[in-house]
Design brief:
Layout: H1 20-55, E1 61-64, E2 69-75, E3 79-85, E4 88-93, E5 97-100, H2 105-117
Antiparallel strand pairs: 1-2, 1-5, 2-3, 3-4
C-alpha cells in the first residue's frame, strides 16, 4: 500500500504561543471605540434631557416629540398641559417634551398665524 499512498509522518508541532496582551489589544480597542461612538453620547443626551425636565416650569416654551410648539400652562409629575393656540390646550406626557425654545418663539409664531388669518 505504501507504493500508492505515502506514509503520513507526524512532524513535531511548533510550540503553541500564548496570545498574551497582544491578542487582547484588538478586541479591547473595538470595545473602547464602540463606547465612545455609541454609549457615551447616548448617556450624555439622557443626562441633558433629565436636566431639562427638572428645569421645566410654567411659562416655558417647548416643542413636543410630535413637533407641536406651545407654552407650558400647568405641569405635574407625569403630565404637562400646553397651550398651543389661544384657549387651546393639550396634555402630553412629560417625557414627550423634546426641546425648550427661546423665550418669545411661541408669541412670534402665534402672531404670524393670526396675521395670515386676517
Amino acid at each position: 500500500m505504501s507504493f500508492f499512498i505515502s506514509d503520513a509522518l507526524a512532524e513535531a508541532a511548533p510550540a503553541a504561543s500564548q496570545p498574551g496582551i497582544e491578542g487582547m489589544l484588538f478586541p479591547l480597542g473595538i470595545l473602547v471605540f464602540f463606547y465612545f461612538l455609541f454609549l457615551r453620547p447616548q448617556a450624555k443626551r439622557t443626562k441633558e434631557k433629565k436636566e431639562m425636565m427638572a428645569t421645566l416650569k410654567k411659562g416655558t416654551e417647548v416643542v413636543t416629540s410630535g413637533g407641536i410648539l406651545g407654552k407650558v400652562v400647568d405641569l405635574d409629575d407625569n403630565f404637562v398641559k400646553i397651550e398651543i393656540c389661544d384657549n387651546t390646550f393639550i396634555q402630553v406626557q412629560r417625557q414627550s417634551v423634546e426641546n425648550m425654545m427661546p423665550k418669545g418663539t411661541y408669541k412670534a409664531v402665534t402672531k404670524k398665524i393670526s396675521i395670515t388669518k386676517e
